[in-house]
Amino acid sequence: MQTAAVRPSTSVRIEAGSPVDSAKAPVVSIPPYLEKHYWWAYIHPNAIRFFDHQPIINFILWGNYAKLRNAALAEMGDELPGNTLQVACAYGDLTPHLCDRVSAGGGRLDVIDIVPAQLRNVRRKLKADAPVRLLNMDSADLNFPDASFDRAIVYLLFHEQPVEHREKTLAEIFRVVKPGGKVVIVDYAQPKWWHPWRYWFKPVLAVLEPFALDLWNNALQTWMPAPWSKTQWPRQSYFGGLYQKVVITR
C-alpha cells in the first residue's frame, strides 16, 4: 500500500490492499471468531439489510446512537484535512457524517473492514464523489506504512474482538497514526452499580457478544502497547457508564 496523497478520490470504490476495484481482487480471510460468533450480525446479507437502519441501531444502543456518534465526531473536529482512518465499518450514519467533515477539510477517509459485504453496504450510503477509499483489510494487520494517518476513529469494535485480535488492532492503530495524531474510541464499559441494565444485560452480552465483558472488567489501556498502556487517557462515560469514549494522543 502506497502512502496516500492528500487529495480526494474521484469515486468511492472497494479496494483489497492495493488500488484496484475488480472482481479479481483478493479478499482477506474472515477470522474464525467472526464467522463463529457474529455471522448473524455482520456477515449474512440478511443481517446487514436488517440491522443497518437508524431506528434499529438506536434501539440496540438503548437510544444512545446519536449521542455516541456526535461525541465521537466532536472529538474528530469539524474539518479534517490530511488522512483519516475509520477502523471497521459501522451501522448507521457515522461514516457519511465523518465523510462530510473530511470533505470540508479537503482530506481523505480510508475505511477498512474484513467483511466485503460491510464495505459494499457503506458504499451505498456515500456520494459517488466522496473522498473515501473502502479497503478490505483485517484491523489486526493493516496494510499501511507507519505514520500514514493524521487521526483514527474506532467505533464500537473492540467489544467484538477476542483479546489477541484486540491487542493487535490497537498496536496497528498506534503504528499507522502519526505522532501527535488523535485516536477516538467509542465502546462498551462497565455500567454503574445502580444501572438497571447492569444485571440482566450482562448474561445477554455473555451469549451474544462473548468478548464484550472484557471491557466491563478492564480498562482499554489493558490491551494497548507500551508505553501507552500506562497512560490515563481522557475518558467520558455515557448512559450510566455502559458506554465510554476514550481520546488518545499518539
TrEMBL record:
Keyword rRNA processing listed: no
Matches recorded under NCBIfam families: rhodoquin_RquA
An annotated Gene Ontology molecular function: methyltransferase activity
Biological processes, Gene Ontology terms: methylation
Name of the protein: Methyltransferase
Domain Methyltransferase residues, every copy: 85-181
One Pfam family from the record: Methyltransf_25
Keyword Metal-binding tagged: no
Domain of life: Bacteria
InterPro entries attached to this UniProt entry: Methyltransf_25, Methyltransf_Superfamily, SAM-dependent_MTases_sf
Keywords: Methyltransferase, Transferase
